[in-house]
């Protein structure tokens, strides 16, 4: 049985850090840590609604852009 999971990815977009989810970019910031915090807030909200989710940060833990 497969669990549908929402994936929030922190990545570079248009010269800034942003959160990407299903092709939509939001929470743009000059600071990577601010984008990571935004991704975690969105993930927490999804979890509070009972939805499985994951936060990924490209360039960390083996996730690479491209």
Describe this structure in words.
There is one protein chain. By secondary structure, the protein is α+β, with helices and mostly antiparallel strands. The protein is 26% helix and 41% strand. It has one helix spanning 32-48; strands at residues 5-13, 16-21, 24-29, 52-57. It is globular and about 35 Å long.
Assembly state: single chain
Write out the strand line-up for the largest beta sheet, numbering strands in chain order. 3-2-1-4
State the order of secondary-structure elements, H for helix, E for strand.
Answer: EEEHE
Count of alpha/pi helices: 1
Protein name: DUF2188 domain-containing protein
Any key phrases for this structure?
alpha+beta, four-stranded mixed beta sheet, 26% helix, DUF2188 domain-containing protein, 41% strand, 66 residues
In a nutshell, what does this entry contain?
With 66 residues, the chain is an alpha+beta fold. The chain contains 1 helix and 4 strands; from the N terminus they run βββαβ.
Topology, please?
Layout: E1 5-13, E2 16-21, E3 24-29, H1 32-48, E4 52-57
Parallel strand pairs: 1-4
Antiparallel strand pairs: 1-2, 2-3
């Amino acid at each position: 049985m497969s669990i549908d999971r929402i994936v929030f990815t922190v990545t570079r977009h248009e010269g800034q850090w942003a959160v990407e989810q299903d092709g939509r970019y939001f929470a743009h910031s000059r600071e990577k840590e601010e984008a990571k915090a935004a991704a975690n807030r969105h993930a927490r909200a999804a979890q509070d609604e009972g939805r499985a989710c994951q936060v990924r940060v490209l360039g960390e833990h083996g996730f690479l852009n491209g």
